[in-house]
Structure formats: structure tokens, C-alpha cells
Amino acid sequence: MRRVFVPTSSGSDWQRLLAKPDLHWKRGASAMTAAACWEDAAGRLPAEITALLQSSGEKSLLGQRLLIALPEWEVPLEGGETSSHTDVLAICRNESGLCVIAVEAKVHEDFGPLIGQKRKNASPGQVERLESLRKLFDVQHFEDNVRYQLLHRTASALLTARDFHATAAVMLVHGFQCPATSRKDFETFAAAMNARAVSPGLYRASRSDGPSLYLAWCEGNSRFLEVELPSAL
Description:
Helix content: 25-40%
Strand order of the largest sheet: 1-2-3-4-7-6-5
């Protein structure tokens, strides 16, 4: 992925960035819903995300102003061959400094395989990646019931925050009518990260150095599920 970006003129500009633009670009799916939501915010964070951050009372999260939002942000991870793809990478700022928010948009879908499934017949590269992620978060061991996608999406937030010398990193699930099982998976992950609740839907992970790390669940506005953006291809 090249690190040269141009502004969007509409939500349809997001389509070409998808791994499978023809398959994933449809009304009610997470890619189109996220594009519609973020374009509607017109250069600001979506209102529900701002409200969630404000409810935390955390100095590093209050009054965040969006500087730039980057769809389909890629972050290389140790081990394996594939990068971690973040639906929206938001770089924000308040009086405390920069804050990086890695957004995982979800609509009626789960978080994919469990770590236990990834460990079965894992290649040497996959084993290396799991171990590097464990070390990154300073966690002694991840149980098999943790969703792997949440692990590497959080790594994207933290590693990008380090690159930008940000004071805070947030892995935020932007859920649009997600099933209760997905919310449960998120809470299981927060517990595995030794994170404590600071407000409803928002947790702070236990860390001894680097940017403050938060895990968040935000309910998206369901009206964007009905928005149909034309294909740009």
C-alpha cells in the first residue's frame, strides 16, 4: 500500500480500496455502511463516537478533533505475509496530543476465527505472529476463545499510534445492529487484555509504557444501513 492519499469526493471513492470491491460493495454491508456514515460526518468524527469518547472522562479522549480519516489502512505485522486491514484509521487531536482510532465496522457479522482455530496447523510465520502480538500487549497467554481479528486490529491501533507519537490508541468496533454474540466476543477480548471498564462500552488496557490503549464498542446509527452508494468501478 502506498502512503500517498487524496481526499474523497463521495463515499463511492471508498470502493476501490476494498480487497474485493465488487463483492463487498453493497447496501447494508459493513464497507458501504461505514463509508456512508463517515462521509456524512463531514470532516468530523461520527456523533456517536464523539459521545462515547466524551463519556469516558479520560483526559486523553475528551474533545477529540478529527484531523484525517484513512479508509482501508494497512499495517504490516511480524510473521505471516498479510497486513492488517483497518476499515477506518482516524487520526485525531486534543489538548493532550494525538489519538489514533482504528475502527472495525461490523454489520450482522462475527469477528472470524478464534485464536484456537488459528493455532491448529499454524505455519511457522503464523506462530511467530501470534507470539509477537502477545509480546506487544504484554499478556502472558491468550486463551483459545479470543477472536483473532480483534487482536491484530488492536495491534494496528497501537503500532500506528507509536509511529505518530500519539498519546492514545483506540481499537473501536463500530457495530451496526450486530448480534449479541459479537458484543460478547468483544468483552471476552477486553478481559483477555486485562482491560478495566472506564465507562459503558469503553475499556482501558493495562500497559506499563507507550500510548494509553483503549478498547471501545460503539453502536452505529442504523439509518446508514439503508444508504446505497453507487459503484465507482
